[in-house]
Amino acid sequence: MSEKIQKPRVATAWLGGCSGCHMSFLDLDERLIELHDKIELVYSPIADIKEFPRNVDVTLVEGAVSNDENEEMAHLVRKNSRFVIAFGDCATTGNVTAMRNRFTPEELMRRTYTELAEEKFAIPSDSIIAKMLPKAIALHHLIRVDAFLHGCPPTPDEIWFAISELLEGRIPKLATAYLRYG
Amino acid sequence: MAVKTFTIDGQQFSAQEGETILQVAREHNIPIPTLCFLEGLSEVGACRLCLIQVEGNNKLLPACTTKVEEGMVVHTNTEKLKKYRRMTIALLASEGNHVCAVCVVNNHCELQNLAYEVGLVRVRYPYLFPKKELDATHKRFVIDHNRCVLCTRCVRVCDEVEGAHVWDVAGRGIDCKIVTGLDEPWGDAETCTSCGKCVLVCPTGTLFEKGVTVAEMEKQQDFLKFLVNARKKREWVYEE
Ligand code: SF4
Ligand code: SF4
Ligand code: SF4
Ligand code: FES
Question: B99, A138: Cβ pair inside 8 Å?
């Protein structure tokens, strides 16, 4: 019967980040089982769901906005989610992802695929490949963000705190309890 | 010397003429955030983080350079001041390239601690991502301009305490930077004695020792009080 009760619909999205924040999420370990009972995971790189759904209660977004796909995804996340959390330092400040900003995308592609590569590759140009934006930017510089979960990556305890508070219907006081960079 | 009586945050204090608001506040554990100020160096009032409000004065004044006056009514922690301090730190963050996760002073950084103190949850301003250089020509030390907040502590310690005056400030606006010698590579600056004082007083990961990696550099600054005491008061004691 309990299946009939609508559980909070939670999603996670992965933009320009190293996936470390998601690894930290997986490090919730046995708490994942508890979480599974309490929420419905409706979209995530760790679940095989193709489309970002409508009507999501909470979305955690890892990574900076670095290419056109990230940009599109960020807008979709905002449109379809009630509460958006910038998940980790790359989403919050640009962090490591934004270190490439001193170079142009063309310089970066040339250096990566030809100058530094052991084998000389052609610079990929297929239209299905995401296009780098001139600069990687923090999530809140593109869309409205409701809360910031800091850290590179946030620890499982910090993630657990944020999610548990939201499940209890409270806005997590991340600014006072867990403000940190790096 | 005359004694002045005044109030800070509603409490009455008295102090010698010539003392600063910051000195009095520190003596009585009233927290005022500071960045360019460092005990033992001259005060320059450059970072504007220690701003205070004085009744009857429309301007916000830096506590580190404002002297106590008779009857002064000082506020150190109003909403307006909190807002300005957060703005100051946010601007510093947006004008440099701060990537704490890969910084040598991660978790031991004065700028990071200030960001926590003022509650900087995110930076509203667009990050400027300026193109800044790194100079590793010195045999022992490195300067990474990406992290520099232009507090000039290095300039002052080298001039006032070491007596070498290797550092200066050059340029203006976003191009403003500190330079060694006549804007030459640090390794070529012949006046540098390699004493390392600038590295230790630097509040950020800008100046660091070669060989340290992420989060490994911790700066010990108590040497400064010791030296200044020894010179001015002829007291050779290490204060706790
Ligand atoms: S200097 Fe401080 S604030 Fe800047 S990147 Fe390093 S740890 Fe972060
Ligand atoms: S190492 Fe010493 S002498 Fe050299 S620049 Fe720094 S403070 Fe000056
Ligand atoms: S190098 Fe360090 S001490 Fe010198 S001005 Fe920059 S932040 Fe301040
Ligand atoms: S500490 Fe007073 S202006 Fe910098």
Answer: no
Domain count, chain B: 2
Q: What interface predicted TM-score (ipTM) does this complex get?
A: 0.91
Residue bearing tokens 């606006």? B173
Size of interface A-B (CB pairs under 8 A): 63
Residue B160 is encoded by which pair of tokens? 């006032």
Work out the average pLDDT over A84-103.
97
pTM above 0.80, yes or no: yes
The verdict on B19 and B110 lying in the same domain is no
- CATH number for B109: 3.30.70.20
Q: Kindly report the CATH number assigned to the domain that includes residue A114.
A: 3.40.50.700
- Of all residues in chain A, the one with the smallest CA distance to B93 is A93
Report which of A140, A97, A15 is spatially closest to residue B122, judged by C-alpha positions.
Answer: A140
- Which chain B residues are Cβ-neighbours of A102 within 8 angstroms? 97, 129, 131
Which tokens in the block code for residue A39? 């929420």
Rounded distance from Cα A148 to ligand 3 centre (Å): 29
A93 touches chain B (CB under 8 A): yes
In-domain check, residue B19: yes
Q: For residue B125, what are the domain limits?
A: 100-232
Q: Is residue B240 part of a domain?
A: no
Tokens coding A78: 């905002």
Smallest Cα–Cα separation from A55: which of A6, A110, A117, A107? A6
In a domain, A128, yes or no: yes
For ligand 3, is residue B152 a contact (CB within 6 Å)? yes
Atom of ligand 2 nearest to the CA of B165: 8
**Which residues lie below 8 Å from residue B187, measured CB to CB, with a gap of 6+?**
B135, B137, B138, B139
Q: Does B120 contact ligand 1 (Cβ within 6 A)?
A: no
Convert the pLDDT of each residue in B129-166 to its tens digit: 999 999 999 999 999 999 999 999 999 999 999 999 99
